[in-house]
Amino acid sequence: MSRVKPNTSVSSATIQLEHSPVPAEQSLGAATTTATTTVGEFSGLEVGVWEMAPGAMSDVEADEIFVVLSGSATVEFGDGSPTLHIGTGDVVRLGAGAETVWTVTETLRKVYLTVG
Q1: Which of 38, 63, 81, 97 has the most CB atoms in a 10 Å sphere around its CB?
Q2: Is the dihedral of CA 8, 115, 68, 90 positive or negative?
Q3: In the chain, what are the domain boundaries?
């Protein structure tokens, strides 16, 4: 695991991630995989890199903000909030407890900040 320490950098675009299958209770349709690694902490926030291969899964979100590095997806919300169509360069904010369905059409990689 690469850790960001003061006055250093980590390449979030090329950091190696180990994918694991999405748990059966979250998988929707064809099996997909995700990977994540924490790269550091900042003022009580966890900073990490997350990736999902093409496919669909359900999730319950943490309070999070992230930047999409590559890929594309839609995020649908159980509360009827408008569907997000996200891609490279987008900055997204998700609220704690939001029930979501992620449909990834091109492997999605993001850098996230969330309450640790």
Answers
A1: 38
A2: negative
A3: 20-115
pLDDT score of 42: 85
Q: What is the pLDDT of residues 45-67, one digit of tens each?
A: 999 999 999 999 999 999 999 99
Q: How many CB atoms lie within 10 A of CB 76?
A: 16
Listed residue (89, 90, 86) closest to 103, CA to CA: 86
CATH value of 20-115 in 3.10.310.10, 2.60.40.420, 2.120.10.30, 2.60.120.10: 2.60.120.10
Calpha distance 76→73 (Å, rounded)? 10
Q: Residue 102 is encoded by which pair of tokens?
A: 């992620």
- Residue length of the chain: 116
Predicted confidence at residue 4, as pLDDT, reads 79
Quick one: tokens of 103?
């449909």
